[in-house]
Amino acid sequence: MKILTTNNYQKLLNQIANLKNSNDQGLNSIDKLSTTISELEVISSEYHLIKLFYETVKKLEKQNSDFSVLSLGIAKFFRNKLDCQGIIVGYKKDDILTDSGVSLSKELGKTKQYLKKFLEIHEDESFVNSFFKSDEDHFLWSSDEFNVINEKFWSDNYSQVIIADNLKRRIEDYINYTNEIKNILIIPIREGKEEDMIGYVILFNFPFDKLKSIYRIFNTLSSFLNLLYKINLRFKQSYVDYEFLSNLSSKYFESSLQVIFEQMARIIPISYASFWIPTIEENDDCFVLKSTYSSLLDKEKVERLKSSNLYKSKATVLREICDFDNFMTNYDENYIYLENQDETSSGFTYFDDIGSNSLLIYPIYKYFNEDRHEEKVSTLGAFIFYIRKTSQVSLHQKNRISKLFEKISFNIEHNLYDMRYHQIETLVKEFSELDSFKITDDFDIICDKIRKTIRSEHVSIFFANPRNELYLGASTSERFRNVDRVTKQIVSYHNVAEFKNNPNKPIYINDDSLTYRSYKANNAVVCHEVHSQSVVSNTTFCEATTSHHESLMIIPLRIENDVIGVLRIVNKIHGKDSILHTFTANDVYIGTLSAKLAVSYIIKSQYLLKQKLFIDSLAHENRTPIQIIELAIFNIQCIMDSGQIPQRLQADLNTNFKNVVSYTSLLSNNFKNLNSIINFEKDSKNSYSYECIDLKSKIEDVIELMRPIVNQRENKQISFKLVINKMPTFYLDEDKMTQVIYNIISNAIRYSYNSTTVEVYYKELKKGGLEFSEIKFENYGHGIEEFERDLVFRDYYRSENAKKEVPEGTGIGLPVTKKILSDMGCSIEISKLNNPTIFSIFIPLTKKCKND
Fold this sequence. Notes:
Layout: H1 6-20, H2 27-63, H3 67-81, E1 86-93, E2 96-104, E3 120-122, H4 127-130, E4 139-142, H5 148-157, H6 165-174, E5 183-190, E6 197-204, H7 211-249, H8 253-267, E7 270-280, E8 285-293, H9 299-307, E9 310-312, H10 324-330, E10 336-338, H11 343-346, H12 351-354, E11 356-365, E12 379-388, H13 395-432, H14 444-454, E13 456-464, E14 470-475, E15 480-483, E16 490-494, H15 496-499, H16 514-521, E17 525-527, E18 542-543, E19 552-559, E20 562-572, H17 585-641, H18 647-678, E21 690-693, H19 695-712, E22 719-723, E23 730-733, H20 734-750, E24 757-767, E25 770-779, H21 800-805, H22 813-823, E26 827-832, E27 837-844
Parallel strand pairs: 22-24
Antiparallel strand pairs: 1-2, 1-6, 2-3, 4-5, 5-6, 7-8, 7-12, 8-9, 10-11, 11-12, 13-14, 13-20, 15-16, 15-18, 17-19, 19-20, 21-23, 24-25, 25-27, 26-27
Helix pairs in contact: 1-2, 2-3, 2-7, 7-8, 7-13, 8-13, 13-14, 13-17, 14-17, 17-18, 18-19, 19-20, 20-22
């Protein structure tokens, strides 16, 4: 198509001058001259018309920047200059076609009913839009049949659109009295040659002989009109978007979602829209429905759609957005547009009810708009727009929404994290009100603090006993009940006092329980419907909720890498009209933070409690030795005061003297253990004083020191057997090794049955390719359980059997012993758990003194 410029016009003038001066004035040249002059006259008039149009538009823009005034001026200009009876200038904004400028002659404009659909028409209802979904560059209709010349004109220059009956009816629906309309020409204004239509010009009853001229004019003006539309429409569009974003920033999260839905419905043809929030199940990432929107579907259909409120990510197209890096790798834009979708391909149900076969998905990511690399980008949610079957989303619409969602994402992120901040603030405030120095094992108050923050019906804590079974530690529920999983009927109630803080009454012991599986796997778990047949769960010990257990969240209680129990949060409480009735990923975050604060408080309380028990026990243990020492000193004093010491009192004097020595050594060892615990972190290997020592003699000395204690304090008849023929001397710390031997033999005596023997053996062996000296200490008593093999070496831990046999005890002897041996490059382990119980000390032979 020719584009008229001043240069082209000048070339034609030069061409005519050359023809006039030519010597060859034949007939052909005259014909060419005549044709060229005619073309020049036509193009010259077109040129002046275009120039006049430029000037008119400039005046209009100066007078008024409103596009409706501008488009009306354009319509009037062309109607007058092109001798048309009517011109409509319109634009397409989002999915709405707007006739912004209409100029009709008196003949056509005698009735306002000529245009049935005036001003705004949805693209699905507009016959204008239906012709330009393809790349057609015009549409022409005439009441007269085309003659041969017209057919040749069409085939040579333009594509021809034949009007079917249904399209003619659409024209009739748009314009009344079609019998008075002789012809219609519709010219689209596109962003580019093959791009989306942004505007259109409709001409009625124009002179048919001016058709070529009209096309040349509009083709020449296409770039200018395109720019004119962009400047005016995009400015208005930018202003509308700015107003929308400004309004959005003042909205709370719930209301902001509806504002976003409504704005998107103005831009794209939405049948149904929804917003989804990430959550988790036991073995999968999921999305749960947060909010919906539809101005087209009836309430019954919307309610049915709301019933499908949870989808596993792997089963739907949402799997594409779960991983940010994967999404950025696979998609060039910040959205996913999927066409030809159904229930099978998308994973979503009720597709037919919605009346859609295309999806537009916009994920919301944390830090999406920021260049952050220090932490993994997490998914905060996803908008899903169902596009009407008869509609499409243009590139311009996608680009516009894409830019909007850059700001929307920030707004959603801000809202969600503002909510999270307030939850954290509430949680910290609740925990700050706790008495950090209160010595207690009643943690119900912690459960109540967490319940208020997360807004759930009940919160319980289950602790792990030494056998890795879970027992009830604390709860906001005063009653627990056994509920039938299928019928949801209450079978029976439990006596909470019987189970609470009772490690010997475990509730969950295997993988039949979701609570136990969370503990065992050390993973947070959300269950959205506890009584669902697809969930493997145990409902024999349920908090007494208002109905039955619906949603459930279980968070492990961790101390470094060890799991000491779980936090169970039951039935999320939401607003009256909320469609979200389960726990989300944000709740898991707050729950995990709550678990950390709970563990911190529990550790501190238990540490204070253990310290109290330790001090009480140590005071009790030291009370008897002090009393015996005082009595022995009194007896010695009485004997000494008698003057001469008769032969018969000599034995009493020796006995009392031995008691003083024995119990003084016991007090000294207790003090050393206490000092080791207090300075556990401060003690270093450099503080040890090494020398060659005779361990056999040390063992014999400790046994002799312990003999009076066996009879008097333990009230037992215990014998000793030392099976050591020869033992080398070792390069070790003498005081520390004495403390080790004292602790082991003292425990052996204390936890032995009456009338049994404590035996000590020595041998040399190879272990792990290295040579060791092994000193074995054997005793016969209740023994140690297999699960307690490592636990007995923990601070303050006392086995259940030990507590039953000897209620008093500090639980620090073995931890101190293990620490001392480890510092000196030695080790201790339980070689045999019972009948007899054997503790073995392993000393590397490299520790032997050189003279041995």
